[in-house]
Write a structure and sequence with these properties.
Blueprint lengths: L7 H22 L3 H5 L1 H22 L9 H12 L6 H21 L4 H51 L4 H7 L15 E15 L1 H7 L2 H21 L3 E6 L2 E6 L8 H16 L3 H4 L4 E16 L5 E5 L1 H11 L5 E5 H7 L3 E11 L3 E11 L4
Parallel strand pairs: 4-6
Antiparallel strand pairs: 1-3, 1-4, 2-3, 4-5, 6-8, 7-8
């Protein structure tokens, strides 16, 4: 409305045939994967077109109508240094290029000296303030990025540590909506599982072993042995619950249900017997495993406030422990419930009935091996 009609078509051409399509093109490019790689360069190019287009308008429109566009140059300079999120170097080069273009146009148009000096004061001041702003924005963005990387590294370490203590499903439940891990002990984490298989393994001859070697060597031995067992449990997708001295406890069927948990636990037991046979102490005949397995229902949950752990409770745990105590060195004793799950694919030998506290006499069987090759 203000620009004289004589130059209006040319101004409109710059605005709607050059500047507006450039802005739309930039918007469309943001949807391309390539834009992320060349975002700084593309944004600089489009903003440069905008700034040079406004500068060209000051050359086309006669005085005093061309004065209207100086405010537009100020706005685009401020935009370049702030909202465009350009890096300091890119923003500085783009804005100074626009100012230099204004100098050329102003000198070519014989701009009055007072106006020329006034405009330069504001343009250069805007650039200096904008350069400071873009530098500080980039500085804090880099600092925030480094802090975020450190935070993510620490969170990964925390999650890895928790995964060594708690099942993966429990760790996922501890995560907040944005993936942060936060443990709220006021929140009770407890579940009931109707069908799981529990394995207890104990090292027979451990006391004798501890008297034969130094405490340091004993700890190294247990670390090596339990590392082998951990790898086997992971291989069969079972959950290690804990170790107590020389005892090892594993469960199958939780926290993620598995209809073949009994078979998986049986495979683990057979593999454990095979692996312990490779140790020198076992070859000498004074190191054996005693293993017990039972299938039933348990309650599982996280306990503790500082040194927390994931544990199981219920009669099934007691019976599995009793299976281990009544087993024989180098053998795997299973309950009637586990026997019913394994009898089709595994060789089992009847052991007889044993008395279990709170349960009475129950049938037990030795797991001798597989009926079929793996």
């Amino acid at each position: 409305w203000i620009v004289p009609s004589l130059v209006l078509p040319r101004v409109w051409f710059i605005r709607y045939a050059v500047l507006f399509p450039s802005a739309v093109t930039l918007f469309c490019l943001t949807y391309l994967q390539l834009f992320k790689r060349f975002m700084q360069e593309i944004t600089c190019f489009v903003l440069l077109i905008g700034g040079l287009g406004i500068t060209l308008m000051t050359a086309i429109a006669p005085a005093p109508a061309n004065y209207l566009y100086y405010g537009g140059l100020m706005l685009i300079i401020m935009f370049i240094h702030t909202f465009s999120r350009l890096r300091f170097v890119y923003a500085t080069i783009t804005s100074l290029t626009i100012v230099i273009a204004y100098e050329v146009v102003a000198i070519s148009n014989n701009t009055p000296l007072s106006l020329f000096v006034s405009n330069n004061f504001f343009f250069l001041s805007a650039n200096l303030i904008g350069m400071f702003s873009s530098y500080m924005i980039e500085y804090y963005n880099r600092k925030e990025f480094i802090q975020r990387q450190l935070l993510e590294t620490e969170q990964a370490k925390t999650e890895e540590l928790l995964l060594n203590i708690l099942p993966k499903g429990i760790v996922e439940r501890l995560k907040q909506p944005y993936g942060d891990i936060k443990i709220e002990f006021s929140q009770v984490i407890v579940d009931k599982f109707e069908d799981v298989s529990i394995l207890f393994a104990d090292i027979v001859g451990f006391t004798d072993l501890s008297s034969r070697i130094s405490p340091e060597a004993l700890v190294v031995f247990l670390g090596e042995l339990f590392s082998v067992f951990d790898n086997l449990a992971e291989k069969h997708r079972l959950e290690k619950i804990k170790t107590i001295g020389d005892a090892y406890m594993v469960v199958g069927g939780l926290p993620d249900p598995n209809p073949h948990h009994a078979e998986a636990v049986a495979e683990l037991a057979l593999d454990m017997e095979e692996e312990i046979g490779k140790f020198e102490a076992a070859k000498e005949g004074w190191l054996r495993l005693r293993i017990g397995i039972h299938t039933g229902s348990v309650v599982a949950g996280v306990i503790g406030r500082k040194k927390f752990s994931y544990d199981l409770w219920g009669n099934a745990v007691n019976i599995a422990s009793r299976m281990e105590r009544n087993s024989v060195a180098g053998n795997i004793l299973v309950s009637e419930e586990t026997y019913q799950r394994l009898r089709n694919n595994y060789s089992l030998i009847e052991r007889g009935r044993i008395r279990v506290k709170g349960k009475g006499p129950i049938n037990t069987y030795f797991l001798a091996g597989r009926k079929f090759e793996k």
